[in-house]
Amino acid sequence: MKKEYSSIPNSMKDMETYGFSWMDFITAIPSPLFLVTTYKSNGKPNACLQSWACFNGSPNGFYAILSSVNKSGHLYKSITERKEAVLNFPSADWYDRCLDTIRNNKFENDEIAMSGLTSQPASIVDAPFINECFLNLECRYLWEREIIEESTHVLMCLEVVNICIDETYLDEKLKGRYGDTGYLYNVHYPINPENFTGKSHDWIATLHKKRDMGEY
């Protein structure tokens, strides 16, 4: 039997949602995890752990759509000032150090180095990329939109202009891009409102290939 929810369930009415919709927690749709790096106006590297994004390609280009960038944060400020950034994808082995960038999130800090990660200037854009991450997407800012008027967050579109990837991840017979060493996903507080008692957990997940759909 299916359940329907068009208004917040009684069990979740007193829940702290941290700015998210209650629907986020019922659907718990996974989203890729990555670290966005830029240079701040003082020249120090900035790093911001992000999720809630999708990636779209066409014959004209490849684009990253970041759907929840906080307008009051260092990331928004540095991207709109510099117009360039790198999206860095860590494996599970490096997630905790990427998470440390939140603790080190101060304007005067080199947030990458203080978190035990190393960086170098990107090849094409004016931003650092993280060496420990297996995939780095160098991007240029294209546009932003508020999903609703006067929102505290914006949807932002970046154009990918260069890809840097560890060659062992290109070969699916070696590490590949999936499984325990590949892409990480944010599984955001999956809640069953029928038995929710006020506490839940955030999760990270990996993606395992299920079925070969054939050549094309």
Notable characteristics:
13% helix, mainly beta, 7-stranded antiparallel sheet, 216 residues, 3-stranded antiparallel sheet
Explain what you see:
There is one protein chain. With 216 residues, the protein is mostly beta strands. Helices cover 13% and strands 34% of the residues. The chain has four helices and twelve strands, in the order H-E-E-E-E-E-H-E-H-E-E-E-E-H-E-E. It has helices at residues 22-27, 74-82, 95-103, 167-170, and strands at 31-32, 34-39, 45-50, 53-58, 61-70, 84-89, 119-121, 128-130, 135-145, 153-165, 184-187, 203-206. Strands 3-2-6-9-10-5-4 form a seven-stranded antiparallel beta sheet. Strands 1-11-12 form a three-stranded antiparallel beta sheet, with no helix packed on it. A two-stranded antiparallel ribbon has the order 7-8. Strand 9 and strand 10 (153-165) form a beta hairpin. It is globular and about 50 Å long.
Biggest sheet statistics:
7 strands, antiparallel
Q: How many runs of DSSP E, i.e. beta strands? A: 12
Low-confidence stretches: none
Which whole number gives the mean pLDDT? 94
Alpha-beta content class: mainly beta
Major sheet: arrangement of strands? 3-2-6-9-10-5-4
The total count of helices amounts to: 4
